[in-house]
From TrEMBL:
Keywords: Hydrolase. It is an enzyme of class 3 (hydrolase). Its EC number is 3.5.4.9. This is Methenyltetrahydrofolate cyclohydrolase. It comes from Peptoniphilus harei. The gene is fchA_1. GO terms for molecular function: methenyltetrahydrofolate cyclohydrolase activity. Gene3D superfamilies: Formiminotetrahydrofolate cyclodeaminase monomer, up-and-down helical bundle. Residues 2-135 form the Cyclodeaminase/cyclohydrolase domain.
Amino acid sequence: MDVSDRMEEIQAELVKYKDEFVDGIDKDANSFNGVMDAMKLPKETEEEKAARSEKIQEGYRNAIEVPLGLGMKVTELYDYARELAEKGNSNAITDVAVALLNIEAAVHGAFLNVIINLNSLKDQDYRHELEEKMDATRKIVEKESRRNYESGR
């Protein structure tokens, strides 16, 4: 496969990512609605309080999972950026550099949406699991950032 064919293939693959991310952004914007809806549930009896509390926790889990998934998924783009920097048009290297910055910003931005909801979780084991996933993803971002800055790209 020649470079031109590969670049077209990458473009097609990245369009799929774009569509997935746009859908994810919409889901993220709506993900907190479950918490808000659960807050409106009745809380007169102990049973109502327990059901309301469970629905609120379920809402927070959803409000966390959506941006967590986006933040983790976006790191898949590093492989494409590396390939574009190596094989793509050298005049577009600054576009690749900006893409790398956008990947980093997307991870941090998505994780801010996770972090703001973590304190509302009652399940400390689940919270710890989420923090570990974010830490692992942040390490990928740090490694890739270091690699790209050291290579001058």
